[in-house]
Amino acid sequence: MLQRFRDLSFRYKVPLRACALVVITACLVTVSMISKEYDELRSDLLSNSASLGRVLSLNLVAPLLHDDAWRAFEIISTPLSGEGDNPLLTAEVILVLDPQRRVYVSTQPTHFQMLSDPARVSPEFRIVKDWLAANTQVQPTQLEPPESDRIFVITPISADGVDLGTLVMQYSKSVFLPRFYSIAQRAALITLLVVAVLIPVSWWWGRRMAEPLVRLADGMAKVGPRIPEDREIALYESKDEIGRVGVAFRRMLGELREKENLEREVVVSDRLAALGRLAAGIAHEINNPLGGMLNAISTYKRHGNDDNDAFTTKTLSLLERGLLQIKNTVGALLVEAQVKSHPLSPQDIDDIQTLVLADAHRKQADLTFANDLRGVLPLPSTLVRQILMNLTLNAVQAVHPQGHVYVRAYIHGGSLSLLVKNNGTTIPAEVMPHLFEPFAHQSESGHGLGLWVTYQIVQQLKGEISVQSAPGETRFTVELPLPQDEG
Q: What is the CATH number of domain 251-336?
């Protein structure tokens, strides 16, 4: 049971403890009040009976001196005649003992006869006689024999120092009960009312006190394979200890997200760098035979048979252009290589439209080109054309029949901006982090090498490429800074 309470949420544990504290406190206060009232009842009994004893003992002096037993009987019977005035003043029996501790007179003469030994009538009086034999009292004394339900108030009767006898008043402890029960009933009722008011307040206060801890625990529970965003965690805002823990927790989450992003970027950079080195090695190996084949074609065209027919010349020209395109493409894989090409002109952008138009027609796609360039730019045309070609072909492949592809080239803030957008298939969110990695998102149209090559070229030109994909539009934006003239 204790273990199950320990495992209980603070959402319930704190309110339960607060309510238990209220109940325990109310019970202790009630018991303390009842105990105090009981002690006050006993004190009132002693005080009232002592006062009564002194009055009676003074009035009994004359009858005892004149041996007037009838007068003494009238005196001790007087307090019992006023029934209902005060229950605490009503004794069960009042006795006057002579100096030999025999009954001189009593309020119950048939039970306690004159000159009889009261101890023989009631064994409890044996304790009274023994006490009187052992003590010489000068003040009223309260005597409560053990295991007895009686209380005796003993008052000496004397005149000028002469012992005339002893006044003994016997009270029943039950005289307290009616008043005690009444007090206990009122105290219990007040306690119930207080508990009925305080328990809901304590429960509300406990829930409110535990809520910051519950929110903090819920937020910490969300930290796992994925770092939650700030909007996913509702923490207690304050400057107390729990509030400071919440602020530190948010700061920790921010640092974890930053660390996760840095790790992801490092992993992607390392992977792309390794693939780049691999591609560079392959490109170097391909460039050697390419160079040899191009040299052979050039030598044959210059020193070959003069009787070459037009078909051979045309075929050699096609082979040369094809090999040059392969060389330029391989050069794009060499991130550190600087492919020699003429500066970018508006005509180079228009050529891309001409080359891609056939693919757009086969897809029945609407291709729109906006070429805002008006002059030559100091950028390698081959690399820029390769970027725009890859992005445009990917956009055409992504759209459905009757889809739309929009391409724009323009100058913005000292950079060449290339915008390619389409209304085709949306890129899945899980693919986005690996979009520019080769073979990371294979499809029927390719293995993702085009975007990887594009990324390598953009990095080589010290530019940036970004992607936004939502239902209805996917947008690729490339920013290539224009080299500044030195001097």
A: 1.10.287
